[in-house]
Structure formats: C-alpha cells, structure tokens
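Lab notebook page, bench 4
Experiment: in silico fold of construct C2
Operator: M.H.
Input chain length: 496 residues
Purpose: comparison with the prior construct
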Amino acid sequence: MMVALDGTIVAIANPAIQKDLGASFADVQWITNGYFLALAVTLITAGKLGDRFGHRQTFLIGVVGFAAASGAIGLSDSIALVVTFRVFQGLFGALLMPAALGLLRATFPAEKLNMAIGIWGMVIGASTAGGPILGGLLVQHVSWQSVFFINVPVGVAALVLGLLILTDHRAQNAPRSFDLPGIALLSGAMFCLVWALIKAPAWGWGAGLTWTFLGASVLGFALFALWETRVAEPLIPLGLFRSVPLSAGVVLMVLMAIAFLGGLFFVTFYLQNVHGMSPVDAGLHLLPLTGMMIVGSPLAGALITKTGPRIPLAGGMALTAISMYGMSTLDTGTSGGVMSLWFAGLGLGLAPVMVGATEVIVGNAPMELSGVAGGLQQAAMQIGGSLGTAVLGAVMASKVDGDLAGNWAAAKLPPLTPAQLDQASQAVQVGAAPVAKGTPPELAAKITTVAHDTFISGMSLACLVAAVVAVVAVFVALLTKRGENADAAGAGAGHI
C-alpha cells in the first residue's frame, strides 16, 4: 500500500512543496521521477536478494527503510534533500514489492494463490487510484509533510505484524551467489531506458540525446542477455522466457500499464483544469474506478481459480479497451454520471488483469525464482507506466501543437507570436487556459473555450491510442495459462 500510494499521492503535494521550498518546475518533476527511476532500475535485483536471503528479511528491511526515508522527507528543508530521500524511498520500495509477491507465492497453496493475489491487487489498485484523494485531504487540511509522515506509523505497524506473523520460506535450490556483472548491465540498461522516457518530452523524441540513451539501453539489454548465457547462476535465467505464458504475462503487464497509467495521467488534468474541480473533488470522481478495483480484484481471483486466467484476462483487457474508447468521448459538458460509467468500466476491466497477469508471471516461474518473477512483474508495470505517460504525452503534445494555432485563429482571437504560441501550447497540454491578468472577461471566456476544446481533442486521441494498446493486449492475453509451477507454492517451500 505504501509503495503504490507514494506513486500518486505526491502529485497532489507537488505544488505545495514547490511553493514552500522555492523549487523550480524541473526540481518538482524529480520528486516523482527520482522515485520511479530508483524503483524501476532496482526491482529485479531486489527480487533476487529476496530469493537469496529470504523474502521475510528483505520485506522487513524494505519496510523499515521506506518508513525512515518517508520521515526524512517530511523533515527536509530543501528540495535537494526531498529528491535524495525520494530516491531512497524508491530503493527500499523495490525491496518491498517483489518480496511481498514472493511471500504470497511461498505461503499459499495453488488453489488459494489467486485469491491472495486478488487481495494484493485490490490494495495496489485502491492505493494507486486513492492517492489523489488522500493526498488532497492531507495537503488541504494538514501540510505537505503529512503526505510522507503518514508512512511512518504504517511502517511501524507493518514491521510489528511482519515480525509476529511472517514466516521465512526458502526454496531448497535457492541461488547461493550473485551475478554482479549481470546486475550492473541490467541496472544500466534499465536506467538508460527509463531516463530516456522521462527526459524525452523535454528533449524531444527526435533529439540525439533521447536516441543515445535508447540506443545505450538496447545495447545494455543485449550485453546482459549475452552475459546471462555464460554465467553459472544468472540474475535472470533466460530459460524463464521459454515459458510463453510467463513472457505473455510480462508483455501484458506493460500494455496494461501503458493504457491505464498513461490514460489516467490526462484524466486528472481533465477533472481539475477543465471541470475546475479541487484535488479532493477530482479524487472523489475517480472513486468508481477505485471501487471497482476493490470489488473486482478478489472476484477476479476467485474466477481465475475456477476458469484459469486466459478468458478473464482477455475479457478484462476488452473492457479496458471499451472504457478507454468511452473516455475518448468525454468533453467539457460531460456529466458526472457518464464519467463514472467509464471510470467504473476501467476499474472492472483492470482488476482481472492486475491479478491474473501477476499470477501468470509468478506462477510460471520456478519457486526459487519467485522473487525475480515478482521483480519482473513490477518492473514491467513501472516501464509500462513510464512508456504510457511518455508516448501518450507525445501524442497529446503533437495534437495540441497541430490544432491550437488553427483553433485560435478560427475563434478570431488576437494573433500570437511563435514564442507566445509555444507558451500557450504548454499550458493547454495540461488543460489550463493561457489567460493573462487583466484580460476582459468576454475575451478570457473565448480563450478558455479554445484551450479546453484543444486539450480535449488531444486527450481524446491519447485515449484512443490507449484503447488500441488494450486491444493488442486482448490477443496477448490469449497466450496465457495457469502457472505450471503453482502447485509448488505453499507445499514445496522449506520453512526456516
């Protein structure tokens, strides 16, 4: 809950942090980017640590470190310290996530694993979608520091309960050595990929720097794959990917995150800047999405246990595609009821995918590699989220840049210089109207109408692209099946 919550809750606190600490917009971006970068780069290595030393120990260290880093952020008096401790949050969060899945895999027998992962998915989905609501309440009524301090009591409770309840499960043939060159190559390749995705909107997708980092990432992954075939105990045995269901599960997780997190990115701007809602109101309007994920995840777990993952996963992605298409029809006058319908459909569609794809990845991996499989699942989600935000952001920016000048001229508004048009375009990309102080009300209303209409045309195109991604994911889902090694869960692990 803590790790997923901190992915979205901080977005609401950013304006308050920026004002209080006198930070630049680029500084504030790094509050989010530093966290996701550290998380994405180290997830698979963190999963390997759990496989080697035991998921209980790794989980508890992650809990303590994450809570301590959160408290340190709340006590920070400079933006540099905030960003530094956010990176530490990401590193300790990376220890938590795969270890949690490894513990579930080792604790529950096959017939109960899907329900356990369903409850886990429910918490992840609810925390991700509920972050803006809780963040809005805390920032509005307490302080931005409270967004981070709230993790400290949660961490203490998790540590106490973990020490009392969690048992240490280790597979008999768990890895005994570390593939340090593999860790270095994979971390470098992941860093270059995520860095390129984070910086591409600022550098430009055609810029030399963007393609340099993307090229370095491809080279790093190629060298990593080559090295893994030569080492005795590889970080990720490439034989894992001979399992078509496991590979399909990883691809499905990436596609799901592109559609979900990329699409959700624009919806928050739509609710706050186009409809003029407060952060709390915007979060409340997303309750149908959160609610359906909470209700749908355990139900999806039960359904997948009975029928296998293939049909629920394909059906979930089909419903996600329909809901993203519905979201492409939203405009300035759309009622709350219509929004709720599409948000609820999205939550209901995502629930079986969050549960089923996780079970497919972790269940199709050998018991001794459950931590690495959990790291793969989470890394796929983080990369998909970064890809979704970057690619759909580029689609949005391109559409706004292409339409704004024509829409501006058609409304017979005063002409803009190229520099003014560029500034206006940046404002419109987040749904804001570029109205200068002292603008007459009638003119301000026309500018606002043009800005919102242009933003919605960009958001509609981005949601359509997300819907197409979800349709592709339907066909990937048909390649999945129940984990071949799931029967080892709960029975085959040694209790130490």
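Observations: The chain has 17 helices and two strands. The beta strands are 169-170, 494-495.
Next step: discuss at group meeting.
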